[in-house]
Specification:
Structural class: mainly alpha
Oligomer: single chain
Subcellular location: Cell membrane
Membrane topology: Multi-pass membrane protein
Distance between the termini: 16 Å
Keywords: Acyltransferase, Cell membrane, Membrane, Transferase, Transmembrane, Transmembrane helix
Number of strands: 0
Main location: membrane
Number of domains: 2
Order of helices and strands: HHHHHHHHHHHHHHHHHH
Strand content: under 5%
Number of helices: 18
Helix content: 55-70%
GO molecular function, one term: acyltransferase activity
Largest sheet: none
Length: 479
């Protein structure tokens, strides 16, 4: 079920009304309703994969209880290992089985060793498996480390794992933040709900007007890159850069806004990353829930930025390469991760990776000249890395890059969508003005009187219906 579908437009009000008007007297019934609604929401794609969520939830629920009961260190380690093996085992099988088989076959072929035809499975990747797997895994790890008391409320835990607003594409919530919200009695908060609707509206604008319009041209340019000039390829890379941001941050906005309708607060997943002044700042602002997950559960346990130079370099490459591999079973994602590690490394070694902690041009309308060029350089590096992320293969990515860095780069682009670029310009201006908020139009109520605010909301609605692009699946559904 897509957030931008008629199905969801019917589903959400029905669940909202049942939640607040029919079952608002009982917390357990509310949680049970959310669980049923979440399973319906997920099963709308393919009901067969519900068994994976149920099994994963059962494993970590009972492992959490056993971790609290066990006093011996080796028993606790075995229980945690079981959780890791089950969760990553499912993820590895569905997402990476064919990749590893194919990679080993190619490696033996390059070494001159003939092999039989590889056994590849026709596996359908369950939607959102990378997200809910990491969510349940973090629960077991936090219980093991003593950061969280294991729950014995199976309904609350299952609802936490499958919570429909963020089930398919995040944010990847920590149990320490989201699970306790299922224990507390929730009352309807009008201001919170209005703000949630406002964030949903902005998220749909990002997805349907910005991302889907960019996708129409970016898909064509990447698919037929050999037929286009370097300047057009550059336009295509730029449009994909805006597409993936509008698509994924738009999903996160709808997810967070929808959660607020039910009195839940999810973590911020994007903080205007394209206004970053260096790559370290970019990764503090892009897909925050995943970046912090890898930081807390992989980077810091490896030693983080402590230790000698070799350890710093090793840990940096591990976290970025693993992050790339998390996105998909393709060498393009690994190269994308390695590129970002290369971008990040000089900042880490020079101890400048924490130099831009404040919002750019805070309290000002315009950035300084230094900030402007820092943003431009960081954005250019990001656009280049996204080429490998978007390409279907390493060969296509290299061909695309070669096409950009040719004499045709200085020609007039064959594709130059004025309407889309104009919409991007307006969108960027609104994002810039709202960059100090959690989302661009969060504090509009404090700046403008009610008539202007409502006129602005109606303009967004009109833009969604008038300028929406050809419907595209959310990019991160494939991860």
């Amino acid at each position: 079920m897509f957030f931008n579908s008629i199905d969801f437009a019917i589903f959400l009000p029905v669940v909202f009304c049942l939640y607040w008007f029919c079952f608002n007297k009982s917390l357990k019934i509310q949680n049970l309703l959310l669980l049923a609604a979440s399973y319906l929401f997920y099963g709308w794609w393919d009901w067969r994969f519900l068994s994976l969520i149920v099994f994963s939830s059962c494993v970590d629920f009972f492992i959490g209880i056993k971790l609290a009961e066990s006093t011996k260190d080796y028993q606790r380690k075995l229980l945690l290992s079981a959780s890791i093996i089950v969760n990553l085992g499912f993820l590895g099988f569905f997402k990476y089985f064919n990749f590893f088989v194919d990679s080993f076959t190619q490696a033996f072929t390059l070494l001159g060793t003939s092999t039989v035809d590889p056994i590849l499975l026709n596996i359908v990747l369950p939607v959102g498996i990378s997200f809910y797997t990491f969510q349940t895994l973090s629960y077991s790890i936090d219980v093991y480390k003593g950061k969280l008391e294991p729950t014995k409320d199976i309904i609350a835990f299952f609802a936490f794992v499958s919570f429909f607003p963020q089930l398919v594409a995040g944010p990847i919530e920590r149990a320490t933040n989201l699970l306790p919200q299922f224990y507390r009695r929730r009352t309807f908060n009008y201001a919170q709900s209005v703000d949630g609707m406002r964030q949903i509206l902005w998220g749909l604008f990002k997805k349907m007007v910005i991302a889907d319009n960019c996708a129409f041209y970016a898909n064509d340019i990447f698919a037929n890159h050999s037929n286009y000039s370097g300047s057009t390829l550059l336009v295509g890379a730029f449009l994909f850069t805006l597409q993936i941001y509008g698509d994924f941050s738009g999903y996160s906005d709808v997810a967070i806004g929808t959660s607020r309708l039910f009195s839940f607060e999810l973590m911020q997943n994007f903080a205007f990353p394209y206004f970053s002044r260096d790559v370290a700042e970019f990764w503090r602002r892009w897909h925050i829930s995943l970046s912090t997950w890898f930081r807390d559960y992989l980077y810091i346990p490896l030693g983080g930025s402590k230790g000698n130079t070799w350890m710093k370099v090793r840990n940096t490459f591990i976290i970025f390469v693993v992050s790339g591999f998390w996105h998909g079973a393709n060498w393009t994602f690994i190269i994308w991760g390695a590129l970002n590690a290369l971008y990040f490394l000089p900042l880490l070694l020079l101890k400048r990776n924490r130099s831009n902690l404040q919002v750019v041009a805070q309290g000002k309308y315009l950035p300084s000249l230094k900030e402007f060029f820092s943003i431009l350089i960081t954005f250019t590096l990001t656009v280049f890395a996204w080429i490998f992320f978007r390409a279907e293969s390493v060969t296509q990515a290299v061909s695309y890059v070669n096409g950009i860095f040719s004499l045709s780069l200085f020609s007039i682009p064959e594709v130059f969508p004025i309407k889309v670029l104009s919409l991007i310009g307006i969108f960027t201006l609104i994002e810039w003005l709202g960059r100090e908020q959690k989302y661009a139009i969060e504090d509009i109520k404090k700046v403008f009187p009610k008539p202007i605010r409502w006129a602005f909301y109606y303009l967004i609605i009109v833009a969604i219906f008038s300028f929406t692009g050809q419907e595209q699946e959310f990019i991160y559904f494939q991860f």
